[in-house]
Amino acid sequence: MHDQVIDAAHAETDRPAGGPSGELRVELPSPAAVTTLAEAREAIDGLDAALATLLEHRTAIAAAVQRLKPVGGFAGRDPGRERRIVEAMAVRAPSLGPDRLAPIVNAIIEAGLDAAESGR
After folding, report:
1. Which of 14, 22, 52, 79 lies 20 to 30 angstroms, CA to CA, from 6?
2. Closest Cα partner for 111 from 56, 72, 39?
3. Are 69 and 49 a contacting pair, CB within 8 Å?
């Protein structure tokens, strides 16, 4: 297992996880290094915790977008922008590809919009 910075543009190895830079460090275990069910579940739990943190932060930033654009909420969705998001993510996750990522991104966007509209 090894520790990697999710966004290498903000990588500074001398800063602790969650440090002043706001960087998030998450352990990205090699699937080949996972040899037991317990190790696999532990790795998934760590990844899920990082995903939850990222999704919470993404939702907060998306709420700011809703405040800033002239037409917000579900009416203000931009299919072209959403397609570009999926394509950019597919570059980082080629084994998932755009067809698998599109419904995930859609669900994330819808959950974020719903949270923004409900004020949570």
Report:
1. 79
2. 56
3. no
Round to whole Å and give the CA distance between 27 and 50.
9
In the three-class reduction of DSSP (H, G, I as helix; E, B as strand; rest coil), residue 21 is classed as coil
Helix (H, G, I), strand (E, B) or coil at 8: helix
Quote the DSSP letter at residue 38.
H
Structural domains of the chain, count: 1
pLDDT band at 35 (very low <50, low <70, confident <90, very high): very high
Distance, CA of 115 to CA of 76 (rounded, Å)? 15
Using the structure block, give the residue that is written with the tokens 């960087």: 23
Q: Is the pLDDT of residue 33 over 90?
A: yes
- Position 49, amino acid: A
Domain extent, residue 60, equals 34-118
Please report, for the domain that includes residue 110, its CATH number. 1.20.59
pLDDT digits (tens, 9 = 90+) for 7-24: 434 433 333 344 446 788
